[in-house]
Amino acid sequence: TFDELLMSNFLVVAVFARSLSLALIFFCAETSQPHHRPSHNGISEDTLIPIVKLSLVMMLFRTAVNLSSPFFSAYMLQEIRLDFSIYSYLIAIPLVTKLIYLTNWARLLDDNKKFEGLAIATLAIGIVPVLWSLGHSPTWLSLLQIISGVSWAGFDLISILLVQHMYPKSITQKLGLFMALGSLGSVIGGLLG
What we know:
Number of helices: 6
Radius of gyration: 18 Å
Mean pLDDT: 75
Largest sheet: 2 strands, antiparallel
Number of strands: 2
Helix content: over 70%
Structural class: mainly alpha
Order of helices and strands: HEEHHHHH
Distance between the termini: 17 Å
Shape: globular
Strand content: under 5%
């Protein structure tokens, strides 16, 4: 049935996302210092290996998360039989929450708390799809969507801050690579889902 297929896909995605979130946390703890290496003429030169690794892990994480995204619409409209206005409301909640909580995450973080913040955000993102199976009331789903918005706000902000921390002198190119691969992961996950 659709419900069994949905739950098995959520389980696979949740396990995959959880594994990638742990890998991301481990990688970020490993790369806690800015990366520069001296070049042959004595001027420091950034290494590309850490940003490529971080970008690839981020791409895989976003692929895993977006793999389940197409199922949410079908699940909410066909299986739970939500009214379209409630569905629209639920879809808007994480976007509005993300706008509100970006500034709150920025206030909570300092240089020493980026990694803890990323750990909390990635773990919450991985748990939310599983929590959808615990109830179908609009109130419960709204709460989960708020958690999702808060988590994604932290995840997106902290990810950018990590790249900035790792490469303070060449942020533009590194951030471009990081964001491009993250977007590619979102596209791949959405298409495969």
